[in-house]
Amino acid sequence: MVVLTGAGISAESGVPTFRGPDGLWGRYRPEELATPEAFARNPLRVWEWYAWRRELIARAEPNPAHQTLAEMEAALPGFLLITQNVDGLHQRAGNRRVVELHGNLWRVRCPRERQVWEDHRVPLPELPPRCPTCGAFLRPDVVWFGEPLPPEEWQHAMEAAREAEIFLVIGTSGIVEPAASLPRLARVHGAYLVEFNLEDTPLTPLMDEIWRGPVSETLPRWWARFQRGK
Ligand code: APR
Question: Among this protein's residues, is 120 annotated catalytic?
């Protein structure tokens, strides 16, 4: 069983999604905050936004949907979780085998030395944070628009999609590539697809099963049925 999650799985933990009624891209312009050009132009502005998200996420808790995915990993040997999210809530819920396609905002990276390390400090002592060894402005270890996905994670995700028997698509608008291609790849290779979302997405026509509603309610119900062998 392979799962692809998006921002919708963290919505009920109080973490804003990107699109939809009160999404982040309705309030902020992605090209000002989530591109390498934006960071080069104004690292402080970008870091103020990530520092705000880090503080908000530090106060958030995994919800029953996150917890269900941790139960599934423990119960199913072939389980793999692929996420577009950078909030780290899957790891906080107990998932260990997590493929992070877009990085993680609890890691920082020195652009000069390319070193990456965990940094959970909330609040950060200074903005923008500087590399302790070379003094360059650190950046969040996340994938910005126009940047390539981490190659190993992307390869791993594609292999898993090709081999999946069951592929769950949870809380994603299904429009950001290349992540949105994974359900298509799974279907082409014979997987059974299930979508968990509040509304239809461009991926809905691919689905064998559709669960409409808040995923903190629908995923536990689906998992209970799956365990009863329904
Ligand atoms: N339960 C189920 N689905 C939900 C819920 C909920 N409680 N709340 C929101 N959703 C759904 C929305 O209907 C929408 O389809 O979650 C989806 C969130 O979509 P986006 O905000 O576009 O998030 P995502 O698909 O993860 O975005 C992909 O875009 O901005 C980039 O890198 C960023 O990883 C992100 C990528």
Answer: no
Is pTM beyond 0.70 here?
A: yes
From 27, 105, 102, 101, select the one nearest 60 (Cα to Cα). Answer: 105
**In angstroms, rounded to a whole number, what is the distance separating the alpha carbons of residues 22 and 143?**
22
At residue 90, the pLDDT reads 98
83 lines ligand 1 (CB under 6 A): no
Q: What residues are paired with 168 via a beta bridge?
A: 3, 194
Q: Which CATH class is domain 2-229?
A: alpha beta
The arithmetic mean of pLDDT across residues 25-33, rounded, is: 91
Task: Tell me if 16 CB under 6 Å of ligand 1.
Answer: no
Residue of the CA atom closest to atom 30 of ligand 1: 18
The whole-number pLDDT of residue 169 equals: 99
